[in-house]
């Protein structure tokens, strides 16, 4: 149980005190009323004796009485009605609340710190968070129990309001004070009248109430004298007469009112009455509303008797006892219950009542001397009147009992003998018959024993009382008088406990039997409750908390909610005070107590109980219990008009992951909305509070700057740019940043400005949000908010919009380096409002809200504001919620909708750079919601017309691009940057002007063509062009392409269409090609320098042709001495698998472009002009290439045409794609050679470089083709071109990346294995450059190309061996110096073929004449050496047996190597 202020002994002693009746004359009552007090109230603070009292027991042994208290009450002749008592108790509990501002009681139980106070009903949250601090303050205290003053007040009122009964005498009157004023004409006669009235009340059958202890009641005569108004001499004379008549022991002169009532309060007199009277003011307002004085009924009185007489009564005596203060006219005695809410007055009215009573001064006419006189009066009355009377009565009763039972000794000594022997077995309560209706006559010996026991108990003679109770208990049980037996058992148990020295243990079974008898047999719950209250306190004092709790719980029933609530609460405190605290049982019983408090109308106490229980259930995962508690707290708080508490409680129900069914969640939400609406109505102009629903995922908030993307219109395809519908890709974002940096560097002459800030149109949790983003005035700012509905019912948000703060600034006008701030107006920011936004059950839904800035400045987006409501009629039908799947539209409210807000607070990324940041938890800023609105900027839109989605590898397609300036500012410096510049071109400076209307050129060729003459088919057609014309000048980056706008400016609202040629990538598959369009405003701005527009083109390419080429030295006899020539072999294969519907490919032209070489003619030219390749067919072309005159930086283009039309390869788009692919190839090879380039420069000397240059060739081949495609029964002609870059003589080159060739040759499975291994080989080569062996001398292949040799001889030679046995054949050895330096050459003819195979095939022959020649060839010199070969018989001979050694003229022989012909020189010798 809760901690009490009194000890158990003090509590029991004060609960059972001798009762003294007070009967006052009207004049005496008038004297006391001067102090706003009745007589009984006047003496009440002085009714406890301050000294010990002595009396003798029947054996004449001295007995000491300590701390004795008596009760003086007015006589009331009607017993209080049960309904009135219930109402009194209800009011007592209702008024008694914990004091605010006191130190909180904290109980530590295991892991719990339980805050036991009532701060919950006045705080802003319904539970507590500050237990720890208070706990530390209380650690020094001796106990941690919580006090419950409302329970103590209830218990005190309950015990003192119990009606007197016939089976016990504890609350019967022992004596009666007759009080008369000295100012009356005949005081003695008045005493006689009062005495007769008392006799009539006690002995007349007319009055059954009150009850009197013995027939001969002690009468004590009190003469009341008003010192300030009365005559003291007369009072003394009357008192002398009284002493002669009644004796000095039976009367007393009490002098009061030493101060006149009209005197000012010049001194502060203490008011000892207030602590008693404040408790009694509850029923006062209804009982005594019409009297001139405030008559206060005494709650502490045992019978709640009236303290004053009605002033309307004329005779002062006859009708004094008719009306009881607890009598309720409109209620019956038994049928009405006072536990309902409807009858209980509100707390405010009770507080007003309390305030009224406490504001009235008491004892205004009394001085401290008067206080001492009253105290002395009570002492005298007790010492000289009451105690002698009780002692005498005990002796008389003892003697009567001895004489009646024929006993030889006193009962006191006899009981010792009786109880020292063996005990008689007692019958079980269940075996006894229901004889509770048995009544004893007043003179019955059994009742005399009980009467004696009660008298002994009242004067603290507990040992004698126990003996008497025990004896009476046996007699009552033998007579089966169960009501009497239960009373004797109850008091015997209490007496045994109160005996000093504790000679015997507390007989708890006595009390249990008594409770069971009262409750089950006698059906008297009031007496059973008294037993429980007494026994529970005794058990608690013995630390038997478990037994006490069981006892308290046993008496809870449906007949009284208030009693059940109080007992359950005390049982809960028992559980928490156990040695091992049972915290959950405490919480459970507090919940039960709160429920019963609520039923009893005690809303504050109910709220307090639920709040204390919440401390245990909170945060333990018992969500359903938490929901129930919070729901009840919310309702009780709302009833008590604590609306903030109610909102907070309902909020917690909604924000936790609720496991409630949908219907229950709907109830919770409606209650919350209803309470919330009441809160907002109280302060309609206050700030919008935070709403708990729906949840917002703050980190998922995305911000988009700019207009929404236009959809495609017909053949027009808008640039993809960026939108909120696109997923964030980190790698892609990095690529866009690189492209933007690249174009910015080009614009700023190779340097990226220090204040460069990459353009970010869409900000999310992955983007860099450390800087303030830039938005443009008059362009929308879209915020995407991720809402989640955790409930199983739909939520409807209406009038949803953003909450923002704006600080206008003029960035263009600078004053002393500071931006100029402008006044803020309502029209500076326009906000979009979503009328209705439905979130279905447990759905996550994105809302896109827009702001339209109309002025420059700093914008701060704070959160969202909306009305929260539900949809009407969301009833479960067959287990299916019809609201699921509802689409946004017009919905019907259920009548409740509240407006609130939620803030968007985004936490930035955790900092992890410095040591301090790594060792602590710090977060950087996230400024995505704080954009800076900058000045007006141009806005570009790009549309692609006839843009293909699928191409053949190498295919050329013509499309159109439309540029539209949709802003009010002109744009300039339009550029496009891409990582794949070889994919597209806008045409060079020499490009052909094509019609601007795309439809006019649909069936035209993408190339510039010229009809050829039939005679010119054998030789190549020449032209030249410079790379500068195609945007590839020195130092330029091929990735950044200038868009050729007329006058370089696009005016506001203007649009222009430009042709764009596309070239299918050489690799098959799906390609994503990124375009970044860069443009600027004509006016320079301080914040935003440029803007970009993104576009990602997705192209799917199919296989077309596979082209490979090699170049080798020509050994032809022609053009001797005219310079160098080579043979170019082009191998073309149709690898298309007809997936694109291609029937066949036609090779229409092969072109070369180089600064040093050109194609001269086709060697193996067919008769048929057409060169067709069907599926999987392969063809080989051979061309002769000759060195062209050096034309500086210009490239020489040579076209070998296989059809009737020549494609001008030096014009757009053919040359564009050639130069772009060439630059990409150079960039690729340059990156590979960078690994050891630095070391190579140091190691290679000029000689080695000259030797290497001999084997290099700078020749590029372009193969142009047409493909015939059948599509939808129509035949289309596709065009395309492939590029082959030839670097080295004799080394094969490909038109596609190398791995595709491997893939084709090896097949898919082998290629996949190779693909896995190849990265490792590249990584080894890349990461270990120091182990790469650098060539310190040329390779044999490079040296073999120093000198080009060719033998000129007849293919067959006829000779008559019969005429001459030796055949001599003249042979010319042609030596050509391919290098640009002097070369020493040694020709050795002594070499013989030694291999048997060669001898079998080719016969042996001999060179005649000189066998070794030493020559020096100048740069590019051609030398003819005449030789003779000697044959002795016919056959086929290989003349290529000579060896040629060469070295640079100024070098040592270290570089010599053999110059072998790669091809055999065969001659046929015929015999004639």
3D structure, described in words:
The chain has 1472 residues and is α+β, with helices and mostly antiparallel strands. The longest helix has 38 residues, at 368-405. It is rod-shaped, with a radius of gyration of 59 Å.
Number of helices: 34
Largest sheet: 11 strands, antiparallel
- The Rg value, from CA coordinates, equals 59 Å
Distance between the termini: 144 Å
Helix percent reads 25-40%
Number of strands: 57
The geometry reads as rod-shaped
Q: Segments where pLDDT lies below 50 for 5+ residues?
A: 118-145, 281-358, 406-435, 814-824, 874-893, 990-1003, 1235-1244, 1300-1335
Strand residue percentage: 25-35%
Mean pLDDT: 77
Structural class: alpha+beta
Write the layout of secondary structure elements.
Layout: H1 8-15, E1 19-24, H2 26-33, H3 39-43, E2 53-56, E3 62-65, E4 71-74, H4 82-95, E5 105-109, E6 112-116, H5 131-138, H6 149-160, E7 173-181, H7 187-203, E8 218-226, H8 232-246, E9 251-256, H9 274-277, H10 284-287, H11 347-358, H12 368-405, H13 411-420, H14 445-458, H15 462-478, H16 482-498, H17 508-521, H18 525-541, H19 545-554, H20 561-576, H21 583-599, H22 603-617, H23 623-639, H24 643-655, H25 662-682, E10 695-696, E11 702-705, E12 716-718, H26 730-747, E13 762-763, E14 774-776, E15 781-788, E16 795-815, E17 818-821, E18 829-831, E19 834-839, E20 844-853, E21 857-871, E22 893-903, H27 915-919, E23 932-934, E24 940-945, E25 950-952, E26 955-965, E27 971-977, E28 984-985, E29 1009-1011, E30 1021-1025, E31 1040-1042, E32 1049-1050, E33 1055-1063, E34 1069-1081, E35 1090-1102, E36 1105-1113, E37 1125-1134, E38 1142-1154, E39 1157-1162, E40 1172-1174, E41 1178-1187, E42 1195-1201, E43 1205-1207, H28 1214-1233, H29 1237-1243, H30 1246-1255, E44 1256-1271, E45 1274-1288, E46 1293-1294, H31 1298-1306, H32 1308-1327, H33 1340-1344, E47 1347-1352, ...
Parallel strand pairs: 1-4, 1-7, 7-8, 8-9, 14-23, 25-35, 48-57
Antiparallel strand pairs: 2-3, 5-6, 10-15, 11-13, 11-15, 12-24, 15-20, 16-17, 16-19, 16-21, 18-20, 21-22, 21-23, 24-26, 26-33, 26-45, 27-31, 27-32, 27-34, 28-33, 29-43, 30-42, 34-35, 36-37, 36-46, 37-41, 38-40, 38-42, 38-44, 39-41, 44-45, 47-49, 49-53, 50-52, 50-55, 51-53, 54-57, 55-56
């Amino acid at each position: 149980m809760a901690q009490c202020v009194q000890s158990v002994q003090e509590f029991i002693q004060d609960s059972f005190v001798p009762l003294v009746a007070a009967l006052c004359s009207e004049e005496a009552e008038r004297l006391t009323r001067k102090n706003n007090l009745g007589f009984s109230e006047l003496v009440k603070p002085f009714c406890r004796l301050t000294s010990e009292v002595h009396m003798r027991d029947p054996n004449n042994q001295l007995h000491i009485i300590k701390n004795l208290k008596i009760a003086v009450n007015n006589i009331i002749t009607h017993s209080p009605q049960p309904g009135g008592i219930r109402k009194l108790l209800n009011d007592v509990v209702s008024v008694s609340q914990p004091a605010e501002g006191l130190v909180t009681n904290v109980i530590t139980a295991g892991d719990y710190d339980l805050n036991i106070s009532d701060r919950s009903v006045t705080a802003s949250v319904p539970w507590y968070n500050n237990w720890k601090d208070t706990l530390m303050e209380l650690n020094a205290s001796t106990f941690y129990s919580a006090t419950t003053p409302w329970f103590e007040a209830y218990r005190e009122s309950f015990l003192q309001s119990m009606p007197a009964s016939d089976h016990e005498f504890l609350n019967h009157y022992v004596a009666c004070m007759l009080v008369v004023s000295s100012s009356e004409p005949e005081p003695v006669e008045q005493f006689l009248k009062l005495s007769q009235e008392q006799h009539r009340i006690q002995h007349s059958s007319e009055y059954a109430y009150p009850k009197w202890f013995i027939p001969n009641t002690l009468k004590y005569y009190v003469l009341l004298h008003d010192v300030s108004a009365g005559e003291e001499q007369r009072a003394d004379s009357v008192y002398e007469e009284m002493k002669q008549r009644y004796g000095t022991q039976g009367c007393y002169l009490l002098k009061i009112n030493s101060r006149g009532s009209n005197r000012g309060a010049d001194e502060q007199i203490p008011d000892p009455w207030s602590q008693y009277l404040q408790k009694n003011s509850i029923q006062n307002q209804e009982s005594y509303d019409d009297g001139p004085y405030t008559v206060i009924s005494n709650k502490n009185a045992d019978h709640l008797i009236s303290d004053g007489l009605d002033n309307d009564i004329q005779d002062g005596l006859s009708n004094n006892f008719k009306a009881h203060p607890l009598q309720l006219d409109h209620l019956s005695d038994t049928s009405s219950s006072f536990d309902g809410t409807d009858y209980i007055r509100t707390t405010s009215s009770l507080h007003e009542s309390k305030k009224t009573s406490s504001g009235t001064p008491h004892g205004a006419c009394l001085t401290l001397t008067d206080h001492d006189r009253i105290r002395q009066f009570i002492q005298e009355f007790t010492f000289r009147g009451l105690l002698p009377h009780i002692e005498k009565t005990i002796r008389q009763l003892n003697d009567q009992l001895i004489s009646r039972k024929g006993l030889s000794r006193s009962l006191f000594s006899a009981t010792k003998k009786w109880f020292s022997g063996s005990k008689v077995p007692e019958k079980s309560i269940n075996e006894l018959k229901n004889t509770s209706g048995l009544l004893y006559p007043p003179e019955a010996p059994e009742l005399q024993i009980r009467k004696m026991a009660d008298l002994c108990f009242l004067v603290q003679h507990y040992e004698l009382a126990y003996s008497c109770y025990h004896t009476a208990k046996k007699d009552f049980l033998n007579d089966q008088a169960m009501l009497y037996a239960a009373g004797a058992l109850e008091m015997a148990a209490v007496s045994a406990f109160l005996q000093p020295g504790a000679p015997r243990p507390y007989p708890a079974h006595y009390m249990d039997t008594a409770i069971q008898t009262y409750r089950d047999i006698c059906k008297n719950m009031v007496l059973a409750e008294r037993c429980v209250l007494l026994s529970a306190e005794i058990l608690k004092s013995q630390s038997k908390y478990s037994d006490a709790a069981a006892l308290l719980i046993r008496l809870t029933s449906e007949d009284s909610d208030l009693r059940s609530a109080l007992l359950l609460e005390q049982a809960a405190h028992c559980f928490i005070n156990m040695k091992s605290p049972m915290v959950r049982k405490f919480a459970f019983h507090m919940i039960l107590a709160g429920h019963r408090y609520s039923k009893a109308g005690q809303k504050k106490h109910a709220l307090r109980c639920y709040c204390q229980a919440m401390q245990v259930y909170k945060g333990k995962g018992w969500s359903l219990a938490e929901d129930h508690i919070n729901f009840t707290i919310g309702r009780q708080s709302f009833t008590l008009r604590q609306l903030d508490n109610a909102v907070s409680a309902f909020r917690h129900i909604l924000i936790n992951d609720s496991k409630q069914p949908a219907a229950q969640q709907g109830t919770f939400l409606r209650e919350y909305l209803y309470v919330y609406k009441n809160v907002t109505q109280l302060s309609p102009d206050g700030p919008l509070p935070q709403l708990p629903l729906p949840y917002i995922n703050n980190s998922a908030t995305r911000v988009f700057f700019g207009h929404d993307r236009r959809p495609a219109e017909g053949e027009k395809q808008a640039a993809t740019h960026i939108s909120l519908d696109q997923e964030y890709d980190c790698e892609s974002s990095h690529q866009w940043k690189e492209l933007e940096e690249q174009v910015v560097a080009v614009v700023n002459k190779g340097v990226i400005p220090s204040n460069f800030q990459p353009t970010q149109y869409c900000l999310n949790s992955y983007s860099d949000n450390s800087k303030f983003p830039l938005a443009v005035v008059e362009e929308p700012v879209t915020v995407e908010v991720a809402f989640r509905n955790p409930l199983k019912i739909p939520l409807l948000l209406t009038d949803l919009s953003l909450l923002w703060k704006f600080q206008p600034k003029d960035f263009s006008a600078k004053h002393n380096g500071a931006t100029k701030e402008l006044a803020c107006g309502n029209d500076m920011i326009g906000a979009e409002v979503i009328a209705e936004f439905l979130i279905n059950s447990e759905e996550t839904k994105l809302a896109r809200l827009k702001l339209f800035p109309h002025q420059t400045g700093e914008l701060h987006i704070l959160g969202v504001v909306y009305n929260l409501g539900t949809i009407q009629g969301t009833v479960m039908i067959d287990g299916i919620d019809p609201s699921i799947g509802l689409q946004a539209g017009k919905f019907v409210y259920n009548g409740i909708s509240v407006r609130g807000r939620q803030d968007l607070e985004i936490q930035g990324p955790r900092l992890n750079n410095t040591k301090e940041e790594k060792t602590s938890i710090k977060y950087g800023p996230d400024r995505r919601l704080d954009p800076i609105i900058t000045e007006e900027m141009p806005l570009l839109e790009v549309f692609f017309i006839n843009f293909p989605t699928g191409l053949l590898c190498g295919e050329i397609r013509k499309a159109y691009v439309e540029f539209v300036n949709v802003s009010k500012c002109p744009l300039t410096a339009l550029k496009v940057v891409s990582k794949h510049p070889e994919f597209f071109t806008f045409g060079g400076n020499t490009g052909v002007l094509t019609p601007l209307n795309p439809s006019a050129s649909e069936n035209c060729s993408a190339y510039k063509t010229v009809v050829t003459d039939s005679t010119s088919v054998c030789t190549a057609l020449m032209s030249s062009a410079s790379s500068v014309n195609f945007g590839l000048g020195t130092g330029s980056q091929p990735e950044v392409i200038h868009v050729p706008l007329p006058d370089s400016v696009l005016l506001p609202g203007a649009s222009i269409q430009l042709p764009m040629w596309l070239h299918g990538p050489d690799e098959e598959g799906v390609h994503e090609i990124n375009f970044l369009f860069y443009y600027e405003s004509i006016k320079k701005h301080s914040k935003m320098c440029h803007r970009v527009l993104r576009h990602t083109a997705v192209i799917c390419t199919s296989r077309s042709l596979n082209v490979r080429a090699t170049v080798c030295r020509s050994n032809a006899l022609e053009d001797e001495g005219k310079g160098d020539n080579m043979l170019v072999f082009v191998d073309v294969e149709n690898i298309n698998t007809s997936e694109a519907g291609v029937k066949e490919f036609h090779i229409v032209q092969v072109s070369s472009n180089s600064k040093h070489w050109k194609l001269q003619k086709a060697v193996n030219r067919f008769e048929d002009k057409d060169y067709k390749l069907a599926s999987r067919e392969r063809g080989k072309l051979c061309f002769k290439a000759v060195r062209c005159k050096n034309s500086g930086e210009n490239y020489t283009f040579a076209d070998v045409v296989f059809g009737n039309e020549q494609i001008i390869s030096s014009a757009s788009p053919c040359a564009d794609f050639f130069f772009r692919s060439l630059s990409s190839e150079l960039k690729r090879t340059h990156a590979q050679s960078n690994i050891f380039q630095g070391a190579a420069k140091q190691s290679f000397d000029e000689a080695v470089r000259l030797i290497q240059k001999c084997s290099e060739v700078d020749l590029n081949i372009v193969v142009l083709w047409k493909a015939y495609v059948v599509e939808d029964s129509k035949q289309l002609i596709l065009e395309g071109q492939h590029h082959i870059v030839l670097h080295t003589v004799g080394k094969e080159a490909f038109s596609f990346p190398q791995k595709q060739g491997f893939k084709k040759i090896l097949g898919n499975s082998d290629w996949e294995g190779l693909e896995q291994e190849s990265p490792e080989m590249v990584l080894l080569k890349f990461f270990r450059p120091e182990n790469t062996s650098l060539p310190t001398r040329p390779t044999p292949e490079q040296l073999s190309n120093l000198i080009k040799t060719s033998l000129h001889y007849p293919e067959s030679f006829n000779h008559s061996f019969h005429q001459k046995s030796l055949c001599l054949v003249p042979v010319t050895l042609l030596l050509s110096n391919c290098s640009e330096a002097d070369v020493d050459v040694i020709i050795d003819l002594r070499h013989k073929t030694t291999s048997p195979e060669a001898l079998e095939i080719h016969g042996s022959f001999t060179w005649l004449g000189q066998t070794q020649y030493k020559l020096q060839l100048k740069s590019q010199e051609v030398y003819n050496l005449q030789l003779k070969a000697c044959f002795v018989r016919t056959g086929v001979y290989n003349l290529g047996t000579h060896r040629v050694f060469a070295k640079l003229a100024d070098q040592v022989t270290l570089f010599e190597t053999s110059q072998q012909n790669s091809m055999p020189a065969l001659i046929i010798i015929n015999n004639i």
